Amino acid sequence: MRMLSLVFLLWWSQCTIATTLVVGMEEANNAPFEYIDDNVQLTGFHVEVVREVAKRLGWTLQFQRHPWKWAIRALENGEFHAVTYVAKSTDREKFAVFHPDNLLHISRTTLYIRKTDADTIVYTPPLQYMVRSWRTAMPGGYYMNDEIIRLLKNGAPIEQPTVTQNQLFVMLISGRYDAIFGATSAIKRAREEIANIDAQIQRLEGAVFEGKRMYIAFSRQIESHLTTDFAEAYRQFRDEAAYQNLGARFGIGELMPLAHEFH
What's the whole-model pTM score? Predict the structure, then answer.
């Protein structure tokens, strides 16, 4: 009887830990994934995915927003069970688990051109040919994708002015460049700052490149079943129309991973 009681207490202890998930995230406006809305409420695609999965598991959920480096340290030492919007790297894999099914979105990069150049500038792979045929640029200090990084290391003439993405759009409009790199969602974010941008700029058809994979990463300091339980519930959620509806609600369509991209 004493042994049975001990087993029950151990089981109950694990269940109690599992009922509260502490999730860290960057204290910044990372719309449409993580941000504070007009009603001063935390929301975004990542936020609502985690909320739905936690709800299905019967877990209490706590979000904590901090400067990025602080959040990553908290993940490393187990103070946070998980952190969202984390790209996998060799260093981070030492203290975090990047379960294939816990992929939240995949950043994708494209080329933007002026609409007046749509009949002239045509994307013809490989990308190396494109950047040597036209004046191209990307914002200095930004990550686009590994292929672009390799081209830069090999001396490709992609300029990297120290400007924001929106400032680079303005430079494209003014004719400084023929084409610029940017996230596929960049033009949506630029609409508030650049009037009438949709009438002047468009994506270059066929030029879409996979970028970084963003996960909800779980700390290696916590019980491993939290990671796998979340992954299983998230997998089931993705099979439902509600998941696609959530993507449509935040306008991230093509940034949502395809079924084969979770593996």
Answer: 0.74
